[in-house]
Design brief:
The chain is of the alpha/beta class. It has nine helices and eight strands. The structure holds phosphoenolpyruvate. Phosphoenolpyruvate binds at residues 6, 151, 156-157, 185-188, 206-210.
């Protein structure tokens, strides 16, 4: 199972250092199935037992892109994993930009956690699968370092996860399109993680709020 933590705009360099120290000690050995996306100012240079990923980047090595982060900056921290298509970032850009990021990350061999998910209107109009298929049309579903995270927008940060029957339907559909590991994300917590992980085709979880405290994240990993 893959356990990924998206810390979003939380944690400072100092607090993430402590977070990582505790997580490293708990994991004990290098583990590719635990991924943490800290804010970029908190990236750690030292080797970790978990994979350190970037919440965002600009599809360039370097250049005249004010305020952005290029490959050169990720390289400095040994970062080889990126999050693309999170709904909080989709709100700021278009599909073409997401495609440019995917193509760049693929070209440079990054592990990609690609997020997709519908809003409540789409769900209520019965168009979820059609919508998700469209979100996937712009990427290479055979890319060997791809992980797909299904994150219905209506469940992100709300404290209420999607119904496991709905998750099952979506993961079944996604599994018919790709061999990439499939994660679920959206208000995963200690009360629902067991049920979510037992859904057919579920290869892990992407966790936001419930992973902000390292002790909680560890509890979720340990099950
Ligand atoms: C997320 O933002 O990717 C996420 C899953 O957040 P939360 O767990 O807080 O819903």
């Amino acid at each position: 199972m893959i356990f990924a933590a998206n810390l979003k705009c939380n944690h400072t360099r100092a607090s993430f250092k402590i977070y990582a120290e505790i997580l490293n000690k708990t994991i004990g050995v290098k583990c590719d199935d635990i991924i943490v996306f800290p804010p970029s100012v908190a990236f750690l240079e030292k080797e970790n037992n978990f994979i350190q990923g970037a919440q965002n980047f600009y599809p360039c090595v370097n250049g005249a892109f004010t305020g952005e982060l290029g490959k050169e900056h990720l390289d400095e921290f040994g970062i080889k994993c990126v999050l693309i298509g999170h709904s909080e970032r989709r709100a700021l850009g278009d599909e073409e930009f997401i495609k440019a990021k995917f193509d760049f990350a693929k070209e440079h061999g990054y592990k990609i956690v690609f997020c997709i998910g519908e809003n409540l209107d789409t769900k209520n109009s019965g168009k979820t699968l059609e919508f998700l298929k469209k979100q996937l049309e712009i990427i290479d579903l055979n890319y060997e370092r791809l992980i797909i995270a299904y994150e219905p927008i209506y469940s992100i940060g709300t404290g209420v996860s999607a119904q496991s029957t709905d998750i099952a339907k979506v993961l079944e559909f996604l599994a018919s399109l790709t061999k990439a590991p499939l994660l679920y994300g959206g208000s995963v917590n200690e009360n629902n993680i067991k049920e979510i992980l037992s859904v057919n085709h579920c290869g892990g979880v992407l966790i936001g709020s419930a992973a902000l405290k390292v002790e909680n994240f560890i509890k979720l990993i340990k099950g």
